[in-house]
Amino acid sequence: MxxxxxxxxxxxxxxxxxxxxxxxGVLALSVAAGAVAYxxxxxxxxxxxxxxxxxxxxxxxxxxxxxxxxxxxPREKPGTVSSTVKPAEKPRVTEEPKTTVPDTQPNVMPVNGxxxxxxxxxxxxxxxxxxxxxxxxGIDIKAERGTAVKAMNKGEVTQVREDPLWGYTVIIDHxxxxxxxxxxxSSAVAVKEGDMVQSGQTIGAVGDSAEIESAMxxxxxxxxxxxxxxxxxxxxxxxIGRK
Length: 243
Fold this sequence. Notes:
This protein is of the alpha+beta class. The chain has helices at 2-44, 52-56, 59-66, 233-236, and strands at 115-117, 124-126, 133-135, 139-142, 148-150, 155-163, 167-175, 178-185, 196-197, 202-205, 219-226, 229-231. It folds into 2 domains: 2-66; 115-236, Glucose Permease (Domain IIA) (Distorted Sandwich), CATH 2.70.70.10. It contains 4 helices and 12 strands, in the order H-H-H-E-E-E-E-E-E-E-E-E-E-E-E-H.
């Protein structure tokens, strides 16, 4: 009876060990099967076309493929701008061409004296000489015959002539569209066409050569045009005492 009891225990023990061995075998087979399935899944993934050549290449081909990268690009120091990257250019601003305006100062009166006849500004006035009503497009400045007549400002003498109505005449381009007309001069004109004169330079002398104003006392008829239109000389240059 004692022997049977030992055999029974031994069977149980052996049976238990067999169960353990069987369980271990099952687990091992499961792991192996999982590994095989994982490997098949990985191999079933489509390899990108770009790497198809590298997949099937040997190790030397892979190294050569890697060496094709550009390696000669100079490294920039920290904080510097790469010479291959150009900074954004500032937009160019086209400047308007500057118009040079000749200096017209200081202006001087050609002669100083009483204003016998002012600028009429387009209004009709009766001429003392002809009795005709007409505009007076300049100013008549009283002065004795032989009084020096000065250039109002620097400029170029464009005309020197004897006009049948206005007598000996000098016309000066003073710049900035200003033209000066000096009428009723004597024959002793001191300049010629093309001369460059300075402000206050003598260009001639007061005379009595203007037939159209011969009934008036001795004087200089002085007119100014700006851009081709008559203007009042006293609005441009004032005689002594005029404000």
